[in-house]
Structure formats: structure tokens, C-alpha cells
Amino acid sequence: MKKPLLVLIPLMLSGCSYYHTFVERMQTDTLQYQCDEKPLTVELNNNNQKVNFVYDNEYLSLTQGLSASGTRYSDGVYVFWSKGDTATVYRKDTVVLNNCQLQNPKR
To answer: What is d(CA 39, CA 43) in angstroms, rounded to the nearest whole number?
Structure first.
């Protein structure tokens, strides 16, 4: 009786892990921006209040913070700020991606 439980419990726990990953992906929107400098793909997860994207071959994960206008995400070095269908990316208060326009926005 104990042997089947020893096999079953790890299988059930691994199933929970896959379910969590599945739910995360279902709650993530992929946004495509066209910036002055280059295109930008952003993964937005509203439930976790995070955005993820690659800039300069570095995977960035920014957490939502306070903003007087629009939505602001930061990791202390990079800032992704969006308002409506536009966005800007800063690195240490310097604009690195400007005039990013959301492509095919949902209406």
C-alpha cells in the first residue's frame, strides 16, 4: 500500500507544478511594440504586476510601481512606462527605447 503512494505523491506534486506554469502562461499577454530604435516584445502579467522583455541581450523582469499617469514597471535600473498605446523604456533615467507604439492594440 505504501509503495503506490510513494510513487503517486511525487507525480501529483509535479502535476501541480505544470498546472501553475500553465495558469501563468494563460494570464500573460504578449504585446508587440514598434519603437523608434527597434521592435520590442513585452510579456505582461497583470496578476503578478510584472512585465518581462529582452533588451541588449538581457532578460528583464520589472515589477509594477507607483505612477501618476500610465503604468510604470521597474527593477531599479530599467523602467518600462506605458500610457495607452505608447511606451518608453529608460535605463538609469536615460531613454533607451522611445516612441514605442503598440501594434494591433485590443479595442
So the answer is: 14
Other Cβ atoms less than 10 A from the Cβ of 45: the count is: 16
pLDDT of residue 19: 44
Contact 35, 97 (CB under 8 A): yes
- The fold adopted by the segment(s) 28-102 is Lipocalin (2.40.128)
pTM over cut 0.85: no
Question: Where do the domains of the chain lie?
Answer: 28-102
Characterise 41 by phi-psi region: left (phi > 0), alpha (psi -120 to 50), beta (else).
beta
- Residues 20, 106: Cα–Cα separation, whole Å: 26
3-state secondary structure of 41: strand
